Amino acid sequence: MSTGPEHPRHRLDDLVHSPVRFSIMAALAGAETMDFKDLRDAIQVSDSVLSKQLSILEKAGYVQIRKSFVGKLPRTSASLSEAGTDAWRAHLQTLRDIAGG
Q1: Parallel, antiparallel, or unpaired: how do β-strands 73-80 and 34-35 relate?
Q2: Using CA atoms, how far apart are residues 55 and 66, in angstroms rounded to an integer?
Q3: DSSP letters for 78-89
Q4: In this structure, what CATH number is given to the domain that contains residue 51?
Q5: In total, how many domains does the chain have?
Q6: Nearest-5° angle of CA 88, CA 89, CA 91?
Q7: In a domain? residue 7
Q8: At what angle do helices 19-29 and 47-59 cross, to 10 degrees?
């Protein structure tokens, strides 16, 4: 076993690395905020899957959830928090490091 520097994979964020959460973070990184339905359609998951994964990211402090009403209709939107943006950038850099870029 090598005694050199630690492999970059050890820096991957398990919360971000999950395919659905990775997709959520990627979509939110490209937008200031997204409505729940738009995000769901963009990453092609069910309401329940998106809701569960957003809750995990919100609890970690990576995503901010806003609930409001448009007329009588409820509207939920999500955005990356500052911590989420930092985690996203660090995760991408780690993937680049692993790929040798």
Answers
A1: antiparallel
A2: 12
A3: EEE-HHHHHHHH
A4: 1.10.10.10
A5: 1
A6: 65
A7: no
A8: 80
In a domain, 23, yes or no: yes
* Summary mean pLDDT of the chain: 94
pTM of the model: 0.89
Torsion of CA 24, 29, 26, 56, to 10 degrees: -30
**21, 57 Cβ separation under 8 angstroms:** yes
For 27-65, the pLDDT digits (tens) are: 999 999 999 999 999 999 999 999 999 999 999 999 999
Query: What value does the mean pLDDT take over residues 4-19?
Result: 90
Residue ranges making up the domain that contains 60: 13-99
Q: Among 87, 98, 99, which residue's Cα sits nearest to residue 28?
A: 87
CA–CA–CA angle 10, 14, 20 (5° rounding)? 140
